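Saturday, quiet lab. Running sequence design on the structure tokens for the scaffold JK sent over.
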């Protein structure tokens, strides 16, 4: 069976790949949106922190014998703890000066993290085994559906929806949104805003690390895996709207699908379709498609 001249098996395969990529785009752009929305920092280290999470999982498996499920718990906590130290000792000192300094700091931090792992492990990818519980898949007749791919999509959606709910529908989310408008007023109500900023940064980079662990069995673990991903993710954030939680989620999954379908119908454009869409969105709506609905915006 063909759909617009493309076999159904090939089409559904690319849709699945698009959803997988979209899952990681959504998770990473979600973290970027949170950090930018509250801290007003463009976190160029986000790709390195995503890679860091994958390496923590790989090290836990090969050095400590702890498998995938432990890594999903421990890796985000490790990266978040390092994020707390970075935010408290260095990044917090840059909030009150020109945003260019925090941008350059995170850019340099990402290069340092990447350089450390490049020097230690080289640029070649290292395999990470799919957990036994998620091995195999189901034959649906028109395609084979791997269990692990389904898990990645479902887990990503769950985290995205939970994060949106936390920020949009809870008291804590109200404090977060209020702090973007007037930090002094929020502090006057007894809220420790500096601590809230620190925990927000830690949570966002923890999400990146969680995504890195989930990506390890699919893309392999390599020092440059974050660099390759983050370029597209920044385009996704711009399209969705800087600081928009909802925009990051929708744009992440949507652009993953568009990229997957482009590989079927016009493979030559697959590598640039996201950037072409970014350019078109900037021309029509410079603040992004969902900028007016940003859950965290100044």
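Result came back. Writing it out in full:
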């Amino acid at each position: 069976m063909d759909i617009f001249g493309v076999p159904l098996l090939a089409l559904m395969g690319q849709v699945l790949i698009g959803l997988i990529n979209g899952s990681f785009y959504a998770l990473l752009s979600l973290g970027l949106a949170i950090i930018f929305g509250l801290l007003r920092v463009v976190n160029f280290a986000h790709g390195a922190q995503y890679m860091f999470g994958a390496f923590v999982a790989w090290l836990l498996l090969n050095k400590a014998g702890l498998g995938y499920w432990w890594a999903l718990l421990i890796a985000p906590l490790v990266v978040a703890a390092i994020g707390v130290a970075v935010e408290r000792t260095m990044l917090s000192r840059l909030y009150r000066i020109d945003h260019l300094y925090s941008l350059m700091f995170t850019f340099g931090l990402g290069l340092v993290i990447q350089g450390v792992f490049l020097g230690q492990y080289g640029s070649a990818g290292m395999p990470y085994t799919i957990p036994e519980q998620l091995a195999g898949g189901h034959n649906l007749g028109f395609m084979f559906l791997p269990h692990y791919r389904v898990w990645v999509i479902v887990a990503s959606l769950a985290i995205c929806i939970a994060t949106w709910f936390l920020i949009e529908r809870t008291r804590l989310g109200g404090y977060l949104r209020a702090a973007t408008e007037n930090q002094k007023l929020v502090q006057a109500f007894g809220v420790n805003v500096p601590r809230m900023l620190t925990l927000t940064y830690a949570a966002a980079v923890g999400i990146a690390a969680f995504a890195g662990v989930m990506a390890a069995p699919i893309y392999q673990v390599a020092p440059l895996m974050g660099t390759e991903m983050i370029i597209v993710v920044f385009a996704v954030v711009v399209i969705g709207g800087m600081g928009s939680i909802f925009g990051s989620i929708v744009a992440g999954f949507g652009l993953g699908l568009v990229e997957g379908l482009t590989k079927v119908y016009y493979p030559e454009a697959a590598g640039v379709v996201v950037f072409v869409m970014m350019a078109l969105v900037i021309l029509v709506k410079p603040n992004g498609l969902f900028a007016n609905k940003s859950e965290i915006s100044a």
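Notes for JK: The radius of gyration is 19 Å. The first helix runs from residue 8 to 39. Ask whether to fix the surface positions before the next round.
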